[in-house]
Amino acid sequence: MAHRALSANYKYDSVSGLKLLGVVQDISHDGRLIVKARFAPRNGAVVRDNLKVMIGRVARVFGPARLPYVAIRPEKDMRTLAILGKEVYVLEEGDHGKGKRRD
Q1: Prediction pTM value
Q2: pLDDT tens column, 69-98
Q3: Which domains are present in the chain?
Q4: Which of 6, 19, 87, 101 has the fewest CB atoms found within 10 Å of its own CB?
Q5: Which long-range contacts (CB under 8 A, 24 or more apart) does 20-25 make?
Q6: Partners of 61 in the β-ladder
Q7: Residue 63, CA distances (Å) to 27, 49, 81 in order
């Protein structure tokens, strides 16, 4: 069995049901985490780290549509400085059932 070495450029886009949102870039003046996102998640979506620990919820999506920024409202007991520079994820959404037709 051949072992493949992981390079620094090799990144997983998802961690078992989680979709990579982006990297925490900054902390705003009101304590929210600012993430340069790969896509625009829905407001209120739960944001987790790679260990599936809840970081907070999406408070606002802003900036250009192609590369939006996301403001995350962190949990009350979260140490925000420890999260700076880390990758964060959101749960992948499946079909919620609305809009399906019955034939």
Answers
A1: 0.73
A2: 999 999 998 888 889 999 999 987 655 556
A3: 14-91 (2.40.10.230)
A4: 101
A5: 20/87, 20/89, 21/47, 21/70, 21/87, 21/88, 21/89, 21/90, 22/70, 22/87, 22/88, 23/85, 23/86, 23/87, 23/88, 24/72, 24/83, 24/84, 24/85, 24/86, 24/88
A6: 70
A7: 16, 23, 23
